[in-house]
Amino acid sequence: MNFTLGFKPAMGDSGSVENLEKQLICPICLEIFTKPVVILPCQHNLCRKCANDVYQASNPLWQNRGTVSTGGCFRCPSCRHEVVLDRHGVYGLQRNLLVENIIDIYKSESTRPLLPKTEQQQLMCDQHEEEKINIYCLTCETPTCSMCKVFGAHKDCDVAPLPDIYKRQKTELSDAIAILVAGNDRTQALISQMEDICRTVKENGHRQMQYISDKFDELYAILEERKRELIETVGRQQDQKLGHVRSLIRRHGDHLEMSVKLVETAIQSMEEPQMAVFLQNAKEVFNKITDTAKASSIERTEAGYESMAHFIINTEDMADMLRGINFQTGEDGEDSSDEAPEDLTPSRGQTDESGRRL
């Protein structure tokens, strides 16, 4: 049945909002939460002023250090879970904006003034224009008027007084809101737990990446040291061979220079026109040529002396082993002498039946 909505009921009915009010009571002042509302690590809520009062009572030494507390701890009045504060004190606790929004809605609805009965607009039946909507059809689940029940479309339906259904559904809605708030608390606790896990995964991953980087740096250092040693070995033999060959070059050079001078001397003797003088000098020249010829058989380098090909290393097996480096699992990891960093684990805490952490 179609009708025109002309009145929106207020939330001032104490019976319909009793359960919602219970969810919005601070366990310290026993009043509706006063903003700002802070959520503790255990997922319980307090007025920030009340949280500060509890903190001051638990930490009397900080009472003379200004309004902003620095560090310290206190216990949640609902579950006795220890709340550890950082340097911001209670001002470092996260605000529960969801609860604050619900408080605003609750207060705006509960304080809305009711119109006098004579001024309240009534819903009128669209089938019987002068009849007010005063009953509720349980079969069709819609408000209707008495005439529709007696003569109209709802004459065979089950009906109930409109105020009774109004109060019942108002109570059911209030209970649903309370369940939703409790579910939101559990979801918020789960989100906080997931955020802790994300932070821990990130930190553990960074630690393991640093660990792997350090291990490879150690391998790099070993390879660099061994490379330096092998290169020095090749360099030493290279210098030794170069020194030996250069000494032979110097000796051959000296012999060549002496031989050239002897040739020049012999040519000059050949040009001597006087036979007596020629014969007198020829003997000395012959002796020098004979000595030079004997000295021509000086030391030589053996064949292949210049080769350095014997300095060969086989890195294929080592390269395959390096390519096969992988993470150890099972018993292989237990036998390792290396101490890998231990994983951090998020402090999940215990949870009650509603999913809140204790």
Automatic annotation (TrEMBL):
GO biological process: cell differentiation
Record-linked CDD domains: Bbox2_MuRF3_C-II
Family matches, as SUPFAM superfamilies: B-box zinc-binding domain, RING/U-box
Domain RING-type: residue ranges: 26-80
Keyword vocabulary terms for this entry: Coiled coil, Cytoplasm, Differentiation, Metal-binding, Microtubule, Zinc, Zinc-finger
Matches recorded under PANTHER family: E3 UBIQUITIN-PROTEIN LIGASE TRIM
Alphabetized GO MF terms: zinc ion binding
Annotated region (Disordered), positions in chain: 327-358
Protein task: May bind and stabilize microtubules during myotubes formation.
Keyword Cytoplasm attributed: yes
The protein, known as: Tripartite motif-containing protein 54
Domain named COS: residues: 270-328
Lineage, broadest ranks: Eukaryota, Metazoa, Chordata, Craniata, Vertebrata
Domain B box-type: 120-162
Compartment list: Cytoplasm, Myofibril, Sarcomere, Z line
Biased composition (Acidic residues): 331-342
GO cellular component terms given for this protein: microtubule; Z disc
